[in-house]
Amino acid sequence: MKFLSLKKCILACTLCGILMVSAQDKETKTILVQKHTIMDQFAPELVTPVSERLELKQQRIAHQRNTRKILDTLDISERKRRRLLKELQRSPFSERLDKIIMAETHFEDSAIKNDGNR
Q: What's the pTM value of the predicted model, to 2 decimals?
C-alpha cells in the first residue's frame, strides 16, 4: 500500500515539474518573421529588412501586452472585457479599442478629480 502511494507521489511531482518547465518555456518563446517575402522577388527596394520587421513585431507585441494590462484594470463587465480582448487579438491598433480605453480612463480621471474637490 505504501509502495503505491509512493509511486503516486513521485508521479505527481514529476508532472508538476514538467508543467512548470513548460510554463517557463512559453515565456521565452522566440519571435519569428519571414526572411524572404514574395514582394522581395519583385520589388526589393520596397521591402523592409528582416531586423526592422522583427523590431516592429516586438513593438506590436509589447503594445498588445500593455493594452491587455490596461483592459484588465478597467472597471467594466466581463462580457465587454472579453469582447475587447477578442478585438485586441484581431486588430491591436483599432480605433474602437482606443476610444473605449480613452473614454473609460477619462471617466475615471474625472471621477477622481470630482472626489478630490469635495
A: 0.56
